[in-house]
Amino acid sequence: MPVITDPREAAEDLELAVLSAIHHAATPQGPDVLNALFAALHDLDLTRGVCTLTWFVRQSPERSGITWRGT
After folding, report:
1. Which residues of 21-34 are buried (b: 16+ CB within 10 A; e: fewer)?
2. Are 49 and 8 spatial neighbours (Cβ–Cβ below 8 Å)?
3. Which of 22, 36, 59, 65 is disulfide-compatible with 10, CB 3.0–4.6 A?
4. Could you report the per-residue pLDDT of 5-38, keeping only the tens digit for each?
5. Is 46 exposed, middle or buried (0-12, 13-18, 19+ CB in 10 A)?
6. What is the pTM of this model?
């Protein structure tokens, strides 16, 4: 799994950037990978960004420490 730390690269393949963030979140590169992903999400259409972020959070609660409660 590539380590994606460049926001432009993350924006070009957002799905791969999400997988990179899930895979590398707990590594030393984790903060850089997450920053690249969030920067790419910031520049997206709101609907696509929210859907992608929702998917990311639902897939990685054990790694992120986030508890997801759907409505």
Report:
1. bbbbbeeeebeebb
2. no
3. 36
4. 999 999 899 889 988 998 998 899 999 999 999 8
5. exposed
6. 0.64
